[in-house]
Amino acid sequence: MMNTHVVINARSGRREGTAITDALEACVAKHGGRVTFHVDERGGSVEKLTRRALNAGASAVIAAGGDGTICGVANRMVGSGVPLGVIPMGTFNYFARSLGIPETAEDAVAAICDGEVRPAAIGRVNDKVFLNNTSIGVYSAILQQREDTYKQFGRSRIAAYWSVLRALVKFYDPMTMKIEVDGERMSVRSPLAFVCNSAFQLERFALQGADEVREGKLALFLADDVGRWGLVKHAAKLAARRMQEGRDFRLVTGREIVIDPGKHKRLVVRDGEKEPMRGPYRIRLDQRGLDVIRPKAGSRPA
């Protein structure tokens, strides 16, 4: 960590910012290195700041923020050979938690400073990276509602769950999709296609597919076309960890998934961040796509 660069999303956790910078400076100095901070004040500059860090010869880049921030940093770091460290400052922090990174700032910094570098599997949708999940359909409306709710009530997991219900009541637009999973083709009408690369996230919601993800597959969830109120009921079941494959959704697993929802450009969500992309969407895994700093084996989990 001789030349460590840190990319911070200032909007994710302002109160933790000072604690993180102080802890990182002390940690890197202890190892005889130096640290440079890049702060994304308004949002949207994470990838540009990561590129700047890499061009400056960073020996490690640490992403401090939520899953979307970490995904943005990772998108620029793939193929660089530079290891990524993560400090969770978001609402859910699925990627950091899946690595065993503690959710408190000082403990997260300690875990990185004493950690080890190991490869991590990443997902790709066309030419873009995702770490936990990617989706098309109603989830993009949920995210927009979530940001509006955060502006009113602040960031919290309760506010996030409430925004799901509000979005589903207002938005329902099922898609007719042609889907191919490892060469097997199907036609589906659904308001949501959700692809997950995180066994940790699936287990937190008591969803099937975690074992297959650990085996190196992607889990594709297709919501049934049940109307807006039916989808609201499904969301309530998901929050209560009572969703059931076959009854409430369809699950297909595979190593490569192609989703074609037609000619229109659609909003694609990657780890909570949305952007317009033109289909078809080719989704696949890169098993050793990113070097990540993790707690050493046997250390205390998050």
UniProtKB/TrEMBL annotation:
<feature type="domain" description="DAGKc">
    <location>
        <begin position="1"/>
        <end position="129"/>
    </location>
</feature>
<keyword id="KW-0418">Kinase</keyword>
<dbReference type="InterPro" id="IPR001206">
    <property type="entry name" value="Diacylglycerol_kinase_cat_dom"/>
</dbReference>
<dbReference type="Pfam" id="PF00781">
    <property type="entry name" value="DAGK_cat"/>
</dbReference>
<dbReference type="InterPro" id="IPR050187">
    <property type="entry name" value="Lipid_Phosphate_FormReg"/>
</dbReference>
<dbReference type="GO" id="GO:0005524">
    <property type="term" value="F:ATP binding"/>
</dbReference>
<dbReference type="Pfam" id="PF19279">
    <property type="entry name" value="YegS_C"/>
</dbReference>
<dbReference type="InterPro" id="IPR045540">
    <property type="entry name" value="YegS/DAGK_C"/>
</dbReference>
<dbReference type="GO" id="GO:0016301">
    <property type="term" value="F:kinase activity"/>
</dbReference>
<dbReference type="InterPro" id="IPR016064">
    <property type="entry name" value="NAD/diacylglycerol_kinase_sf"/>
</dbReference>
<keyword id="KW-0547">Nucleotide-binding</keyword>
<protein>
    <recommendedName>
        <fullName>DAGKc domain-containing protein</fullName>
    </recommendedName>
</protein>
<keyword id="KW-0067">ATP-binding</keyword>
<dbReference type="InterPro" id="IPR017438">
    <property type="entry name" value="ATP-NAD_kinase_N"/>
</dbReference>
<keyword id="KW-0808">Transferase</keyword>
